[in-house]
Amino acid sequence: MWCLVTDISANSLKKRKLVAVMGGTFDPVHHGHLRSALELKQLLNLDQLRLLPCHQPTHRGVPRTQAEQRLQMLRLAVADEPSLYIDDREIRLDQPSYSVYSLQSLKAELGDSVTLFWVLGVDSFASFTRWHRWQEILQLANLIILTRPGFTLGENTPEQKLWQANRADCAELEKADCGKIYALQLPSQLEISATFIRDQLQQGCSVRYLLPDAVLNYIQQQQLYG
Ligand SMILES: Nc1ncnc2c1ncn2[C@@H]1O[C@H](COP(=O)(O)OP(=O)(O)OP(=O)(O)O)[C@@H](O)[C@H]1O
Ligand SMILES: O=C(O)c1ccc[n+]([C@@H]2O[C@H](COP(=O)([O-])O)[C@@H](O)[C@H]2O)c1
């Protein structure tokens, strides 16, 4: 009996914690993000999935809403969903948001026994080799690329070559601490974008059912995207 307990604790000590991070502008968060996050957490049996809103994006125009408002919409969206965690480290830093620094800070906080995954849609991965110190991102985490309706990776692009050189299947991903790229098509494949939601609101159209009601109520109260 004693041996059995020892074996179990030895195994659990050996097991690495798996933490995935989905960074985004979330202007606003929608069901495309939330379903993807939930399905991914379940499929890969992750210990934690963090939604990481950026403060000042470096790669696109200024968001339509304040960082605090985007953070608040995320908090409302997951208020009754304990399996999704909001990480506000980029919002707390009043500076341009670079993913490499967020991953470094996460690694320092969570320790070396945690395997990190950076989650991104294929549209976002399409510019990955132009990200700040992107090679270091691959030394800190594995990448998980989500297919997204309407988006494909261009042939012969640096990103396609990078994917070909580092692609992993699920078994290889399980063994790798960093540097592997795993592409997967999640079951739901929701064709929702924040751009579409902002456009609809601008035109005075309803966006109900594209995002959580609590987020929609907040948008209306704060008169966002009008
Ligand atoms: N419907 C979706 N399915 C899968 N991934 C998504 C979906 N929407 C966004 N993502 C991914 O989530 C991350 C954060 O996305 P972001 O906050 O920019 O949302 P978005 O809908 O793409 O916004 P925008 O239209 O303003 O660019 C990115 O990696 C993006 O590729
Ligand atoms: O660090 C970078 O250079 C970098 C360049 C482009 C995008 N990102 C991150 O990628 C995430 C998705 O961005 P977006 O535009 O799809 O919302 C978000 O967390 C951004 O901060 C990061």
Automatic annotation (TrEMBL):
Signal peptide: none annotated. GO terms for biological process: NAD+ biosynthetic process. CDD domains: NMNAT. Keywords: ATP-binding, NAD, Nucleotide-binding, Nucleotidyltransferase, Pyridine nucleotide biosynthesis, Transferase. Residues 21-199 form the Cytidyltransferase-like domain. One of its GO terms (molecular function) is ATP binding. Its EC number is 2.7.7.18. The keyword Nucleotidyltransferase applies. Coiled coil: none annotated. It is an enzyme of class 2 (transferase). The keyword Cell membrane does not apply. It catalyses: nicotinate beta-D-ribonucleotide + ATP + H(+) = deamido-NAD(+) + diphosphate. It comes from the Bacteria. Pathway: Cofactor biosynthesis; NAD(+) biosynthesis; deamido-NAD(+) from nicotinate D-ribonucleotide: step 1/1. InterPro entries: Cyt_trans-like, NadD/NMNAT, Rossmann-like_a/b/a_fold. Belongs to the NadD family. Catalyzes the reversible adenylation of nicotinate mononucleotide (NaMN) to nicotinic acid adenine dinucleotide (NaAD). HAMAP family: NaMN_adenylyltr. This is Probable nicotinate-nucleotide adenylyltransferase. It comes from Oceanospirillum multiglobuliferum. The gene is nadD.
